[in-house]
Amino acid sequence: MNAKQIKHYEILSEFFNSDILKQAAVDKYFGALLKLDYAFAEDLWEFMLIRSDADLKNIAVARLYIDRAFELFYAANAPKALKTVVDRAVVQRAVFGFSPSAADGELFNLPVNLLVANKTETVDAILKNVAKNEAMGVSYGEYMIKFLDKFFIEMMKKNAQRKVELNRKQSALLMSLVQKVKGDERAMLVQRVKEVL
Question: Comparing C-alpha atoms, which of 9, 82, 72, 1 is closest to residue 40?
Protein backbone atom coordinates (compact mmCIF):
# COMPACT_ATOMS: atom_id res chain seq x y z
CA MET A 1 0.00 0.00 0.00
CA ASN A 2 1.45 3.35 -1.01
CA ALA A 3 1.13 6.75 0.71
CA LYS A 4 -1.71 7.87 -1.58
CA GLN A 5 -3.79 4.78 -0.76
CA ILE A 6 -3.17 5.27 2.96
CA LYS A 7 -4.38 8.87 2.64
CA HIS A 8 -7.55 7.65 0.85
CA TYR A 9 -8.41 5.35 3.72
CA GLU A 10 -7.57 7.95 6.37
CA ILE A 11 -9.97 10.41 4.72
CA LEU A 12 -12.66 7.71 4.41
CA SER A 13 -12.24 6.71 8.04
CA GLU A 14 -12.53 10.31 9.22
CA PHE A 15 -15.55 10.88 6.96
CA PHE A 16 -17.49 7.88 8.25
CA ASN A 17 -16.60 8.77 11.86
CA SER A 18 -17.96 12.30 11.38
CA ASP A 19 -21.58 13.44 11.09
CA ILE A 20 -22.05 12.52 7.42
CA LEU A 21 -25.36 14.36 7.21
CA LYS A 22 -23.71 17.74 7.77
CA GLN A 23 -22.55 19.92 4.90
CA ALA A 24 -19.28 20.71 6.67
CA ALA A 25 -18.31 17.01 6.63
CA VAL A 26 -19.27 16.59 2.97
CA ASP A 27 -17.35 19.75 2.02
CA LYS A 28 -14.27 18.80 4.01
CA TYR A 29 -13.91 15.15 3.05
CA PHE A 30 -15.20 15.24 -0.52
CA GLY A 31 -13.04 18.34 -1.06
CA ALA A 32 -9.98 16.51 0.25
CA LEU A 33 -10.66 13.46 -1.91
CA LEU A 34 -11.26 15.57 -5.00
CA LYS A 35 -7.83 17.14 -4.55
CA LEU A 36 -6.22 13.76 -3.94
CA ASP A 37 -7.92 11.48 -6.47
CA TYR A 38 -10.94 12.46 -8.57
CA ALA A 39 -11.84 8.87 -9.51
CA PHE A 40 -11.84 7.76 -5.87
CA ALA A 41 -14.09 10.72 -5.01
CA GLU A 42 -16.46 9.61 -7.80
CA ASP A 43 -16.60 6.14 -6.28
CA LEU A 44 -17.39 7.58 -2.85
CA TRP A 45 -20.14 9.79 -4.31
CA GLU A 46 -21.68 6.81 -6.07
CA PHE A 47 -21.43 4.72 -2.88
CA MET A 48 -23.11 7.43 -0.80
CA LEU A 49 -25.94 7.70 -3.35
CA ILE A 50 -26.45 3.93 -3.23
CA ARG A 51 -26.27 3.94 0.56
CA SER A 52 -28.68 6.89 0.83
CA ASP A 53 -31.04 5.68 -1.91
CA ALA A 54 -34.05 5.31 0.36
CA ASP A 55 -33.41 8.77 1.84
CA LEU A 56 -33.01 10.69 -1.43
CA LYS A 57 -36.68 11.75 -1.31
CA ASN A 58 -35.76 13.70 1.83
CA ILE A 59 -34.99 17.19 0.51
CA ALA A 60 -32.13 17.74 3.01
CA VAL A 61 -30.35 14.54 1.98
CA ALA A 62 -30.90 15.32 -1.72
CA ARG A 63 -29.50 18.82 -1.32
CA LEU A 64 -26.45 17.44 0.46
CA TYR A 65 -25.54 14.32 -1.50
CA ILE A 66 -26.80 15.40 -4.90
CA ASP A 67 -26.71 19.19 -5.23
CA ARG A 68 -23.83 19.99 -2.88
CA ALA A 69 -21.75 17.03 -4.05
CA PHE A 70 -22.33 18.06 -7.67
CA GLU A 71 -21.26 21.63 -6.83
CA LEU A 72 -18.01 20.32 -5.31
CA PHE A 73 -17.28 18.07 -8.29
CA TYR A 74 -18.16 20.85 -10.74
CA ALA A 75 -15.89 23.32 -8.96
CA ALA A 76 -13.04 20.80 -8.98
CA ASN A 77 -13.35 19.92 -12.67
CA ALA A 78 -16.45 20.97 -14.63
CA PRO A 79 -16.04 18.74 -17.71
CA LYS A 80 -15.32 15.67 -15.58
CA ALA A 81 -18.28 16.41 -13.31
CA LEU A 82 -20.65 16.54 -16.29
CA LYS A 83 -19.13 13.33 -17.66
CA THR A 84 -19.60 11.66 -14.26
CA VAL A 85 -23.28 12.62 -14.21
CA VAL A 86 -23.79 11.24 -17.73
CA ASP A 87 -21.65 8.08 -17.53
CA ARG A 88 -22.44 6.74 -14.06
CA ALA A 89 -25.98 5.36 -14.03
CA VAL A 90 -26.39 5.62 -10.25
CA VAL A 91 -25.29 9.26 -10.25
CA GLN A 92 -27.43 10.10 -13.30
CA ARG A 93 -30.54 8.50 -11.75
CA ALA A 94 -30.05 10.32 -8.45
CA VAL A 95 -29.18 13.70 -9.96
CA PHE A 96 -32.07 13.83 -12.41
CA GLY A 97 -34.56 11.79 -10.42
CA PHE A 98 -34.22 13.47 -7.01
CA SER A 99 -32.29 16.76 -7.29
CA PRO A 100 -34.18 19.92 -6.36
CA SER A 101 -31.87 21.71 -8.84
CA ALA A 102 -32.52 19.51 -11.90
CA ALA A 103 -34.49 22.30 -13.59
CA ASP A 104 -31.77 24.93 -13.18
CA GLY A 105 -28.19 25.75 -14.09
CA GLU A 106 -25.76 23.18 -15.43
CA LEU A 107 -28.01 20.26 -14.58
CA PHE A 108 -30.71 21.76 -16.80
CA ASN A 109 -28.29 22.67 -19.60
CA LEU A 110 -26.67 19.22 -19.70
CA PRO A 111 -29.52 17.30 -21.42
CA VAL A 112 -30.16 20.27 -23.73
CA ASN A 113 -26.53 20.26 -24.86
CA LEU A 114 -26.54 16.48 -25.22
CA LEU A 115 -29.61 16.63 -27.47
CA VAL A 116 -28.01 19.38 -29.57
CA ALA A 117 -25.05 16.97 -29.94
CA ASN A 118 -27.55 14.25 -31.01
CA LYS A 119 -27.02 12.02 -27.94
CA THR A 120 -30.67 10.97 -28.01
CA GLU A 121 -30.36 7.74 -25.98
CA THR A 122 -28.63 9.53 -23.10
CA VAL A 123 -31.17 12.37 -23.17
CA ASP A 124 -34.03 9.87 -23.17
CA ALA A 125 -32.62 8.17 -20.05
CA ILE A 126 -32.07 11.52 -18.32
CA LEU A 127 -35.56 12.83 -19.08
CA LYS A 128 -37.18 9.59 -17.90
CA ASN A 129 -35.61 10.34 -14.52
CA VAL A 130 -36.64 14.01 -14.67
CA ALA A 131 -40.25 12.91 -15.26
CA LYS A 132 -40.16 11.15 -11.87
CA ASN A 133 -38.51 14.06 -10.03
CA GLU A 134 -40.94 15.59 -7.56
CA ALA A 135 -38.35 17.76 -5.79
CA MET A 136 -37.50 20.23 -8.57
CA GLY A 137 -40.41 22.55 -7.86
CA VAL A 138 -41.91 22.46 -11.37
CA SER A 139 -44.01 19.86 -13.12
CA TYR A 140 -42.59 17.73 -15.91
CA GLY A 141 -44.73 19.72 -18.37
CA GLU A 142 -43.28 23.03 -17.18
CA TYR A 143 -39.80 21.53 -17.34
CA MET A 144 -40.39 20.38 -20.93
CA ILE A 145 -41.63 23.85 -21.98
CA LYS A 146 -38.41 25.36 -20.68
CA PHE A 147 -36.39 22.47 -22.18
CA LEU A 148 -37.88 22.91 -25.66
CA ASP A 149 -37.37 26.69 -25.56
CA LYS A 150 -33.69 26.28 -24.67
CA PHE A 151 -33.17 23.43 -27.14
CA PHE A 152 -34.74 25.36 -30.04
CA ILE A 153 -32.62 28.43 -29.23
CA GLU A 154 -29.44 26.31 -29.22
CA MET A 155 -30.42 24.65 -32.51
CA MET A 156 -31.05 28.05 -34.13
CA LYS A 157 -27.59 29.19 -33.01
CA LYS A 158 -26.09 26.22 -34.86
CA ASN A 159 -27.96 26.93 -38.10
CA ALA A 160 -26.73 29.74 -40.36
CA GLN A 161 -30.30 30.41 -41.53
CA ARG A 162 -31.53 30.68 -37.91
CA LYS A 163 -34.03 27.89 -38.42
CA VAL A 164 -34.62 24.88 -36.22
CA GLU A 165 -33.76 21.79 -38.21
CA LEU A 166 -33.99 18.45 -36.44
CA ASN A 167 -32.75 15.10 -37.63
CA ARG A 168 -34.99 12.03 -37.48
CA LYS A 169 -33.68 10.81 -34.12
CA GLN A 170 -34.11 14.20 -32.45
CA SER A 171 -37.63 14.72 -33.77
CA ALA A 172 -38.73 11.18 -32.82
CA LEU A 173 -37.34 11.59 -29.31
CA LEU A 174 -38.96 14.99 -28.78
CA MET A 175 -42.32 13.75 -30.01
CA SER A 176 -42.20 10.72 -27.72
CA LEU A 177 -41.15 12.90 -24.74
CA VAL A 178 -43.93 15.44 -25.15
CA GLN A 179 -46.49 12.66 -25.60
CA LYS A 180 -45.64 11.53 -22.04
CA VAL A 181 -46.51 14.92 -20.54
CA LYS A 182 -49.72 14.91 -18.57
CA GLY A 183 -51.86 17.97 -18.13
CA ASP A 184 -52.57 21.22 -19.91
CA GLU A 185 -49.04 21.60 -21.28
CA ARG A 186 -49.21 18.49 -23.47
CA ALA A 187 -51.19 19.95 -26.39
CA MET A 188 -48.99 23.03 -26.54
CA LEU A 189 -45.78 20.96 -26.44
CA VAL A 190 -46.98 18.59 -29.18
CA GLN A 191 -47.90 21.60 -31.34
CA ARG A 192 -44.48 23.22 -30.82
CA VAL A 193 -42.67 20.04 -31.84
CA LYS A 194 -44.90 19.60 -34.90
CA GLU A 195 -44.15 23.17 -35.99
CA VAL A 196 -40.45 22.39 -36.45
CA LEU A 197 -40.88 19.00 -38.10
Answer: 9
